[in-house]
Amino acid sequence: MAEKVVILGAGESGVGSAILAQKQGLRVFVSDLGKIKDKYKKILQQYRIAFEEGKHSEDEILKADLVIKSPGIPEKAPLVKKLREMKVPVISEIEFAGRYNNAKTICITGSNGKTTTTLLTYHLLKEAGLSVGLAGNVGSSFAWQVAEKDFDYYVIELSSFQLDDMYQFKADVAVLLNITPDHLDRYEYKMQNYVDSKFRVIQNQTPDDFFIYCADDPVIREELKKRHIPATCLPFGWTEAPENGAGVKGDNIIINWKQNTFTMSIFDIALQGRHNTYNSMAAGLAGMVLKIRNEKIRESLADFKGVEHRLERFLKVHGIEFINDSKATNVNSTWYALECINKPIVWIAGGVDKGNDYNDLKDLVGKKVKAIICLGVDNHKIREAFSGIVPDIIETQDMKDAVRSAYYLAKDGEVVLLSPACASFDLFENYEDRGRQFKTAVREL
User: Fold this and answer.
1) How far is 230 from 211, CA to CA, in rounded Å?
2) CA separation for the pair 117, 113 (Å, rounded)
3) Which residues make up each annotated binding site?
4) 250, 279, 303 — which closes off a domain?
5) Could you tell me if 26 and 104 lie in one domain?
6) Mapping DSSP to helix (H, G, I), strand (E, B) and coil, where does residue 184 land?
7) Residues in CB range of 305: below 8 A, 6 or more apart
8) pTM
9) Any idea what DSSP says for residue 3?
10) pLDDT digits (tens, 9 = 90+) for 218-237
11) Are 122 and 251 in the same domain?
């Protein structure tokens, strides 16, 4: 009898896993506690895959030989606890797809910048003419592509939640951009647990694999002292480039790999700002080890068109610039946004707090922010952190109200910045929904 696979969550990753499992001759059952989106329901029906929505039938689920769970379901969910007690293997979509994948994988993680770096790396490989898929937190489901496509490479963005349920999977090229406190609510508020999660990106690597990491990140530096890394290590940072790795000299980024040196002015890179220079070095290094020609790397770094909802300079209304940085769901992302704007800012912030410490922002906020518009169900932590630093702090409960309030407070030559530093789930479906509502509200001014 074929193995029984239960998939918890019927979003992009769950439905992709179901298709791959069915293709492998496994018995599949999909269960979603919420309502399944119509487009996914149609696909499950089309493939004749058994599913349920609005509930989890425990008697059915606990009979599974293998459970693939959505990264959004926390470890402390009662059903997950029961499965663990019964020693039923619970894995992620990426782990499952990895079992059937023969393509090379470039896996990118970090607290900030991973979507930008993933899309940039994908752009670079695609422009170089490689057969490449985009998966993980962006693009289509990895499992779905493994089931139905035949790529030679995958560029995969990995969140810590996905990494937590990965065991045998191996990245051929692992990229670790930075580690700053994020999602600590999922890690018992212990930073080391979160650090360990991020470092899972290099598990199972061999001397034939590559580990690209930011040498300027203090948490990564400390962690490397404790670990033996079998892969070839390629650091990048804001210092002179090592023999194998990347760095900055004057106004140029330099990337060295096996006697090949790549040089490019930081002013010619499409993505401006210090954090984006890091992202570009990481993507460039990945390109170098995959033997992409220097000219192609240069072209791709120069013509890449950023990421929607990430420091997206969206529109000017009566001289006021509106910037959509809805993707900034933690303090560190917002720090980057505030740091790279050199005009007075009306800052729209708030949402679901993930254990945020706003102390790191106080200095920048004091220098640059003239007013804060709180946009969340509970804004007391933002008010507490910045009252006395910013003269105007205004409470709002919906995007239209927030945008209108910001517009009245901003003047010609100033910036309205949506950079929430929080998750979006109190008032919005996700950060994309929040960003789209922001853009709609700005258009209606």
Assistant:
1) 9
2) 6
3) 110-116
4) 303
5) no
6) helix
7) 270
8) 0.77
9) P
10) 999 999 999 999 999 999 99
11) yes
